[in-house]
Amino acid sequence: MSAELQKAIDSLRIRDVYLRRSSSYLADDFDPKYSPEANALAVQFKHVVTRGEVLALKEDDADIRIFRVYINLGTRWVVFPESTSEDGSGESDDETDVKAVIEAIFLAEYLIENEPGKDALDAFALKNASYHIWPYWREYLMNQCMRMNLSKIALPTVQFAANNNESTGGI
Questions:
Q1: Which of 38, 52, 148, 162 has the most CB atoms around its CB within 10 Å?
Q2: Per-residue pLDDT tens digits of the chain, which is 171 residues long
Q3: Which residues contact 6 (CB under 8 A, 6 or more apart)?
Q4: 145 contact partners, CB below 8 Å, separation of at least 6
Q5: Distance CA 67, CA 166 (A)
Q6: Which residues contact 76 (CB under 8 A, 6 or more apart)?
Q7: Is residue 79 within 8 Å of residue 41, measured between CB atoms?
Q8: CA-CA distances (angstroms) from residue 23 to 94, 102, 105?
Q9: Where do the H-state alpha helices sit in the chain?
Q10: Torsion of Cα atoms, 113 then 4 then 106 then 59, to 10°
Q11: Cβ atoms of 71 and 108 closer than 8 Å
Q12: In sequence order, what are the beta bridge partners of 18?
C-alpha cells in the first residue's frame, strides 16, 4: 500500500453512501420472462471511478470538509454478432444487440479529519472508495434483476474499479 493511500485512510472517515442516479431498461423486442434467448445472453459489467470532489460546509456552527467520490456502475445483457467471439472481443457497441441495461452512479462521502493532500485523495478514490460502495451496488443490481425478470446476478463480495487512467495523475 502506498504512503499516499495510507495517509488518506488515516485522514478520512466514512460518512454516507447513496445512490445519485440510476436507470434501467429492457429493449422493446426483448421479454426476459418469455424469450428463449434470455439465458444465453452475455453479461458485461462497468465499474469506473469518475471523479472526486472536496466540499467545504458549515454544520452545527463548525466548518467541515467532505470528500465525495462518484462511482459509475453498470451491467448489460447483450447478444453479440455471429462473427464475434464469446468474450466479446472484436465487437463494437454499434454491432452489439443490447437487450437489457441496469446502471447506477453511487456516491461515497467521507469526513476529512486531517488534510491528506490531492494525491492521497486521488489514490483513495481509485483504490478504496469501491469497498464502501460495492455492497450497495450488489444489492441494487440483484433487486433490479428480480424486478425486471432478468436472471439474478450475485456479484462477488468485492470488486475494484478498472480505471485506465490511474497513471495519468488524477481522476
A1: 52
A2: 689 999 999 999 999 999 999 999 999 999 999 988 888 899 999 999 999 999 999 988 899 999 999 999 999 999 987 654 555 555 555 568 999 999 999 999 999 999 999 999 999 999 999 999 999 999 999 999 999 999 888 888 765 555 655 444 445
A3: none
A4: 102, 151, 152, 153
A5: 19
A6: 43, 44, 46, 98, 100, 101, 102
A7: yes
A8: 20, 6, 9
A9: 3-11, 118-127, 129-147
A10: 10
A11: yes
A12: 107
Q: Cα separations (Å) of 82 from 11, 39, 92, 97?
A: 52, 17, 13, 11
Cell numbers found for residue 129: 472508495
What gap in Å lies between CA 74 and CA 17, rounded to an integer? 17
Q: Reading across the β-sheet that carries 97-112, which strands appear in turn?
A: 12-26, 97-112, 62-79, 42-59
